[in-house]
Amino acid sequence: MKDFLFVFRMDNSKMPTGTPEEMQALTKRWMDWIGGIAAQNKLGDRGNRLDMSGRVVKQGAVTNGPFVEIKESIGGYSLIKAASYDEAVELAKGCPALPLGGNVEVREISPLS
To answer: What are phi and psi of 37, to 5 degrees?
Structure first.
């Protein structure tokens, strides 16, 4: 098995809002999806959501960011175990962010030698 990183991205203008019941239903879809991956013993770490605030560190400077002017932001991540990129991509296709206009970046993790 190889390790993959799922990076969840969403257009800031399409971030879901709704009643508490609708938001709870969306959270349940996320939990069901990630639970299905875990049930297949392919979940390395469910990961976390990321706060919208942060800092950007560059040579000689630290600034506030990422900025809300950025159209698409990273909302969270998960670590997945899969035999191949194709399998990891198939697992990503069930992500609840996709019908909302979001996307999942799938990246293989290459251990440092």
So the answer is: -65, -40
